[in-house]
Write a structure and sequence with these properties.
Layout lengths: L19 H7 L5 H4 L9 H4 L8 H12 L2 H4 L1 H8 L1 H33 L6 H11 L8 H35 L7 H15 L5 H28 L16 H12 L2 H9 L13 H24 L15 H34 L8 H25 L3 H29 L6 H36 L1
Helix pairs in contact: 4-11, 4-13, 4-14, 6-7, 6-12, 6-14, 7-8, 7-12, 7-14, 7-17, 8-9, 8-17, 9-10, 9-15, 9-16, 9-17, 10-16, 11-14, 11-15, 12-17, 12-18, 15-16, 17-18
Length: 465
């Protein structure tokens, strides 16, 4: 069986992962018949998935490591300063386990939605709409709004990551350049803009894989240098805070969730895999990638906090003493973050273009379509630059976007989607336990969203005052 409209896919199937048969289902997704689809039939969406330029397991692992080893890992010492040393280690392990499980829940829910509608591929928002329509009557009216909300959170989060990357690069380049010539952070952001827009023009994940591989190599080298310095230099004599404060813990939660959860791109790389069954296996791409990332997070957070204690800055590279090795570490990490901009901005570009703009331009000439697509890519690059200039508070930025967007995307919606998929099954112990587990994940997401967003917004306001 061939994908019915494989030519429809342009580049990458996060927002455009629909077939003609799936579009036909959309009008009847709210009908009783569509809700009674047998989720236990022998249709396997993975067997019929065909995507242009699919990535292999190694390329997918490169992307996953690139997502985890962003600016968030360098903010871990400051996060440990907010949570306390012991609390930070335990909480990082717990949050990493929860995030990994929620990503598995989301991937399984998407698979269940595809199975229910007998289509090979479906985007996160469309999967939410379908699963809500399979669930309790009280949730069915929220199928459409949930898809819109997920689109909003995904786009906001991914553009927020891009803003954080711009601020990070500008802060560190300024530190390197100040001894030679002094320019404002905003000017360093402006210098980046043309190259960032050029990275935005890369059309698919296959072409981005070499960039992710190079960025990962630079990241690991840089982190080795950072760890060496933190272990060999004189540590702070300030007493360590082992348990932290409840008032500042939400900022830690927002930081760690931001750093560990790149929901939109994780879903995207799984959708684009050549062998998607290997993604969530016990020793598959997801577990290997999350295991490596979590270990490095704890190492950097622990060592960095012992080194600077309460004086930890937004990113640990800003705390290192001047010198050639520090300069090399900063240059390597700046390079890695800089070229990762295209990976994160790819998702909002693809979603906005394929979900909202392209459907409204039916009949337009190829030249006009190309012009509009280029304008979108350039416009989003300029937008992230403007927002980064307006709010250059990197640590608070990380906490805000982590708490606001990823609590909903990474915890709340996957839990609701799994609940809706299990709802048609006969009552029993397994169903009850699943509902209790998903309720717990939903509550964790809501608490993180409310408390983390409030703390981050309060911190941003106070920082300007």
């Amino acid at each position: 069986m061939q994908r019915e409209s494989g030519e429809d896919l342009k580049g990458f199937p996060i927002g455009k992962g629909e077939t003609d048969s799936w579009r036909a289902h959309r009008s009847e997704a709210g009908s009783p018949t569509s809700r009674r689809v047998d989720l236990g039939d022998d249709y396997d969406p993975h067997e019929f998935r065909q995507v242009p330029n699919p990535t292999n397991d190694l390329e997918t692992l490169f992307h996953l490591l690139r997502l985890g080893l962003g600016t968030g890992i360098l903010a871990m010492p400051q996060a440990f300063a907010k949570a306390g040393l012991v609390t930070g280690i335990i909480s990082t392990i717990c949050v990493a386990a929860l995030v990994t499980h929620c990503l598995q829940v989301l991937i399984r829910a998407q698979y269940g939605a595809c199975k229910a509608q007998r289509v090979p591929l479906m985007s996160y928002p469309e999967a939410a709409r379908v699963t809500f329509n399979l669930g309790p009557k009280a949730l069915r009216p929220f199928g459409g709004p949930s898809a819109v909300a997920i689109d909003f959170f995904l786009i906001t989060y991914q553009l927020g990551v891009c803003c954080v990357y711009i601020v990070f690069v500008a802060d560190n380049v300024k530190k390197l350049c100040d001894p030679h010539f002094v320019a404002s952070v905003e000017m360093h952001m402006l210098f980046q803009l043309p190259v960032l827009i050029a990275l935005n023009m890369i059309p698919n994940l296959k072409m981005l894989a070499p960039f992710s591989g190079a960025a990962n190599l630079a990241t690991f080298t840089s982190l080795c240098i950072v760890i060496y310095f933190l272990l060999t230099m004189e540590r702070s004599t300030e007493p360590l805070d082992l348990w932290g404060s409840l008032a500042t813990f939400p900022l830690f939660f927002g930081t760690i969730v931001f750093a560990l959860t790149a929901v939109g791109v994780v879903v995207a790389v799984e959708n684009n895999m050549k062998t998607p069954k290997s993604f969530g296996r016990p020793c598959g791409v997801l577990h290997i990638g999350m295991g490596v990332v979590t270990t490095l997070f704890i190492a950097i957070g622990y060592i960095g906090y012992i080194f600077c204690v309460s004086e930890c800055r937004d990113v640990v590279t800003l705390d290192l003493p001047p010198g050639a090795p520090t300069t090399v570490a900063i240059i390597l990490y700046v390079f890695a973050i800089f070229i990762s901009y295209g990976l994160h901005c790819f998702v909002p570009v693809d979603m906005l273009w394929n979900e909202y703009i392209l459907p409204r331009m039916q009949g337009a000439s190829k030249a006009r379509l190309k012009c509009c697509e280029i304008s979108l890519r350039v416009g989003l690059g300029i937008l992230t630059f403007v927002v980064a200039v307006m709010v250059p508070r990197l640590g608070l930025f990380i906490s805000l976007f982590g708490a606001l967007c990823l609590s909903a995307l990474g915890f709340c919606f996957p839990a609701l989607m799994e609940t809706c998929l299990w709802y048609p099954r006969p009552p029993g112990t397994a169903r009850t336990l699943m509902f209790l587990k998903d309720s717990f994940l939903f509550v964790v997401g809501i608490i993180g969203l409310v408390s983390g967003t409030y703390s981050a917004l309060l911190g941003i306001i106070q920082s300007f005052q």
